[in-house]
UniProtKB/TrEMBL annotation:
Role: Produces ATP from ADP in the presence of a proton gradient across the membrane. The V-type beta chain is a regulatory subunit.
Recorded family membership: Belongs to the ATPase alpha/beta chains family.
Domain (ATPase F1/V1/A1 complex alpha/beta subunit N-terminal): residue spans on this chain: 11-74
Protein name per Swiss-Prot or TrEMBL: V-type ATP synthase beta chain
Domain of life: Bacteria
């Protein structure tokens, strides 16, 4: 027989406090009945002796210390999963918000998951095509990788996320592919944008969305990425599918974590965030990867907005430690109407070296991306010089670099929202740009590739 607690010790924001409680576990779920009729759910977030602190998912409005009956379920937050989730939209705790039926399944899955054994991990190698030149050519996404996008408020990261969801596909593979999209703290107009973008492109049938809107409880916001990753693990490791998880915005998630931490009166760390922010983010990011003996994979693209465009802020800083590279969006390129405004110099993909080249993308890919990085870094130097002496006083070769910089941004980085380029098309655009230079400047390219692809 379950024990019922009829009196709360304290109510503090989204938190409730009970005393005289025993035999409960961290993350255990609770059922709350208010005035004998209304039902809400809560999750245990702290245990101090016989005192329990819990977060209420639907908020504490209408709850008093005397009008509630609390029962502990003995289980953590669990969701039902089956292949029927594809094409569906759920809230952050797995409840349908698309007017569809609840998912019926014999098994329930703990959203907190389990850490992936490092020994069981398989090294990622296969290339995943997004159709975006700046990503596919210069910061190549490898199946099973964690590759975040560092953006800023006002930039086009939502459009980029939608384009990645619409266009992503496996290269040279007939394996099953699907996408899990997690939105945390997103506004209604952004939700409608994502929804229409998926439906109009026909991609919605292979996408399962977990949406936490900006006016939804922050407790749900903390559960949203875990719920989405649990669905991804089910599809990848039980159904044998290759899954791309796109999560936006990690900054909203971290701020919800900070708000809850403050309500729990925990000692703050950098910029008020809890000291366990690093380990908390790692419990999300490290759920991506490939497992030996399993056919499926989970590739993760978390998107975060850097407060005040500060890449040293704790959220991007800690994310960079855990993940395998980053794609950085530039406000300067955005102001030039370049889409997507990918700043390639601070961007990198640490796993791309083992997933490109002959048998994966194209034999010249490695040297082309190296040459593009070298030329564009020189462009930045020449632009700085031109601001001092003026472009007319530059040397002839420096003027070529200036022209290359303009052409590279307009023709290579810049592409339409509905334009999908194959890796071969992106590499061919790069070779067309190389024609601006005398061959002596192309010191990263072997002569055999110049003869084969250069077409001088």
């Amino acid at each position: 027989m379950q024990r019922q607690y009829l009196k709360l010790e304290k109510i503090d924001g989204p938190l409730i406090v009970l005393k005289g409680v025993d035999n409960v576990s961290y993350d255990e779920m609770m059922d709350i009945v208010i005035d004998g009729s209304e039902r809400r759910r809560a999750k245990v977030v702290r245990i101090q002796g016989d005192k329990v602190i819990a977060q209420v998912f639907e908020g504490t409005t209408g709850i008093s210390t005397q009008n509630s009956a609390v029962t502990f379920t003995g289980t953590p937050l669990e969701i039902c999963l089956s292949k029927d989730i594809l094409g569906r939209t759920f809230n952050g705790v797995g409840e349908p918000i698309d007017n569809g039926d609840y998912i019926i399944s014999e098994k329930k899955y703990n959203v907190n998951g389990r850490p992936m054994n490092p020994v069981a991990r398989e090294y990622p190698r296969d290339y995943l095509e997004t159709g975006i030149s700046a990503i596919d050519t210069l910061t190549t996404l490898i199946r099973g990788q964690k590759l975040p996008i560092f953006s800023s408020n006002g930039l086009t990261h939502n459009a980029l996320a939608a384009q990645i969801v619409r266009q992503s596909k496996l290269k040279n593979s007939d394996d099953k592919f699907a996408i899990v999209f997690a939105g945390m703290g997103i506004k209604y107009d952004d939700y409608e944008f994502f929804k229409s973008a998926f439906e109009e492109s026909g991609a919605s049938s292979r996408v399962v969305s977990y949406i936490n809107l900006a006016d939804a409880p922050i407790v749900e916001r903390i559960s949203t990425p875990r719920t989405a990753l649990t669905a991804a693990e089910y599809l990848a490791f039980e159904e044998g599918m290759h899954i791309l998880v796109v999560m936006t915005d990690i900054t909203s998630y971290a701020e919800a974590l900070r708000e809850i931490s403050s309500a729990r009166e925990e000692v703050p760390s950098r910029k008020g965030y809890p000291g366990y922010l690093y380990s908390d983010l790692s419990t999300l990011y490290e759920r991506a990867g490939m497992v030996k003996g399993k056919k499926g994979s989970i590739t993760l693209i978390p998107i975060l907005t850097m407060p005040n465009d500060d890449i040293t802020h704790p959220i991007p800083d800690l994310t960079g430690f855990i993940t395998e590279g980053q794609i950085v969006l530039s406000r300067e390129l955005f102001q030039k109407n370049i889409y997507p405004p990918v700043n390639i110099l601070p961007s990198l993909s640490r796993l791309m070296k083992d997933g490109i080249g002959d048998g994966y993308t194209r034999e010249d890919h490695d040297q082309v991306q190296s040459q593009l990085f070298a030329l564009y870094s020189k462009v930045i130097e020449v632009r700085s010089l031109s601001q001092i002496i003026g472009e007319d006083d530059l040397t002839e070769i420096d003027k070529i670099y200036m022209e290359f910089g303009r052409e590279f941004e307009q023709n290579f980085l810049n592409q339409n929202f509905d334009e999908s380029r194959t890796i071969e098309e992106s590499l061919d655009i790069a070779w067309d740009l190389f024609k601006l230079f005398p061959k002596i400047e192309l010191d990263r390219l072997e002569s055999k590739y110049i003869e084969k692809y250069g077409r001088w």
